[in-house]
Amino acid sequence: MKKFSVTDIQEVAKKLGLHHMSKSYFNLQDESDEKLQFLYECLHKELILREQKSRATKIGKAHLPSFKTLEEYDLNFQPQLSKWQIEELKKLNWLKEKYNIIFMGGSGTGKTHLAVSLGHLALSQNYKVFFSTLENLIYLLKTKEAFKSSSARVKYLYECHLVIIDEVGYQKLDKQDVLLMYELVNKLYNRASIIITTNLDFGKWGELFQDESMVNAILDRLTHNCQIINLKGESYRLLNHNNIFKKRIKN
């Protein structure tokens, strides 16, 4: 049986926010080892339950569309990424240093898979994560004053360590949309990491945002501390699609 000290109990009390207990001895050093163990185990169980609840809440608020892992990513299909680069992404040093990541490539090249995988990895290490398509994000920003649900989502967005914006490039933005996008990026600049998936080269972002000066301002902040990863090739989904005739032949 492990012998628990007063220091062990104080450390758990500190994690639970029991500041008075974490700084006081309460003459616990005079108690038996059995009593110290019982107290430690009670506090430790409470800590585990709180951590589990906190993790579940973060997972729910992240709104990640699916569960993907970096181990599931097919490096043979995407030679632009090496095993070493995947391992570097997994370390999450870029997140600690508030670097951004932009996954750029055509449909089906694995951009969202990588972004979602990194989102789940960040959640597993107790980071707060926010995921949204650009279309839905603009809707949330536009309606935050009108709807409590939008206001709550936007408020949580600004509390997050990692914000993932998916599908940038599939719809044009009007002037109000572009201004909202700029304000978002500007507020997150040097405060959180942003992952963006886009099917457009930066040269074509002017067509998307329809305002060259605003595009430059957004890109200036996004790319200051940023890793840009170009993913090329055909769609993985198209090359590996299932069809009803193939299934019937197997049967």
Please tell me about this protein's structure:
The protein has a five-stranded parallel β-sheet. It has 251 residues and is of the alpha/beta class. The chain has helices at residues 6-15, 19-23, 33-62, 83-91, 93-96, 111-124, 134-143, 148-157, 175-188, 205-209, 212-222, 236-239, 244-250; strands at 100-105, 129-133, 162-168, 193-198, 226-231. The longest helix has 30 residues, at 33-62. It contains 13 helices and five strands. Helix 3 packs antiparallel against helix 6 (111-124). It is elongated, with a radius of gyration of 23 Å.
Task: Chart the SSEs and their pairings.
Layout: H1 6-15, H2 19-23, H3 33-62, H4 83-91, H5 93-96, E1 100-105, H6 111-124, E2 129-133, H7 134-143, H8 148-157, E3 162-168, H9 175-188, E4 193-198, H10 205-209, H11 212-222, E5 226-231, H12 236-239, H13 244-250
Parallel strand pairs: 1-4, 1-5, 2-3, 3-4
Helix pairs in contact: 1-3, 3-6, 7-8, 9-11
How many DSSP helices? Answer: 13
Biggest sheet record: 5 strands, parallel
Return the structural class. Answer: alpha/beta
Q: What is the percentage of strand-forming residues?
A: 5-15%
The arrangement of helices and strands along the chain is: HHHHHEHEHHEHEHHEHH
Task: Characterize this entry briefly.
This protein has a five-stranded parallel beta sheet with strand order 2-3-4-1-5. The protein has helices at 6-15, 19-23, 33-62, 83-91, 93-96, 111-124, 134-143, 148-157, 175-188, 205-209, 212-222, 236-239, 244-250, and strands spanning 100-105, 129-133, 162-168, 193-198, 226-231.
